[in-house]
Amino acid sequence: MSAHVIGLTGQSGAGKTTVSSELLLHGFYHIDCDVLTHMLLKPDTDCIKAIKAHFPQFFTDGNFDRRKAAPLLFSDKALLERYNSVIFPFITHDIKEMISYAESHGHELILLDAPTLFEAGADSLCEMIVACIADIDIRLERIMERDGIDRQSAAARFKSQHDDEFFRERADIIIENNGSYADLVKSAQDCAKEIKNRINRSKRK
């Protein structure tokens, strides 16, 4: 039996981490694309070699410097798109391998947790997509508190991200996180039930 791959994405500060944690309690196998990306950025990987060839300005003493790269990428959309075009093929390759691994080990529900799901084209691997969104002022406050950065730095991150309408047009399930933590957990639990209900309905057709 093939697995059901559910994409989870959304805006920074919209609660995706909490939703992901809750869905894992409902039996989903987790593919965390943030972790996957960090693995690809380790020294001497083919991915890091490709990045170094195209973006030497991101390196300090021969090592990839996230603190140097991040502000450059967040402030320059064209640069970010070029960077993504280099790194995304490596990410997609590893995602496919992890999906195959999960399927071969009997996992029926796979959560593909990816902030850049659509940019990487990984939405094409998903049966359903869940997106977390929230009002921008709320997200700004959350990011400032979470990462210890000022409002200007937080706002700069959002410039390269999609608005609510983008996700509403493309996701199958929307979770709006403008309330309390308890509200978000309840929404995530409802989401897990809805995903399973939709899968069961499709099986009966």
Key descriptive features of the protein:
single chain, globular, 56% helix, 5-stranded parallel β-sheet, Rossmann fold, 9 helices, 205 residues, alpha/beta
Structure description:
The chain is an alpha/beta fold. The chain has a single domain, classed as P-loop containing nucleotide triphosphate hydrolases (Rossmann fold), CATH 3.40.50. The chain has helices at 16-24, 33-40, 46-54, 66-75, 77-104, 136-147, 151-158, 164-170, 181-204; strands at residues 4-10, 29-32, 59-60, 63-64, 109-113, 128-133, 173-176. The strands form 2 sheets. The protein has a 5-stranded parallel sheet with strand order 2-5-1-6-7, with helices on both faces. It has a two-stranded antiparallel sheet with strand order 3-4. Strand 3 and strand 4 (63-64) form a beta hairpin. Helix 1 crosses helix 9, helix 2 crosses helix 5 and helix 3 runs antiparallel to helix 5.
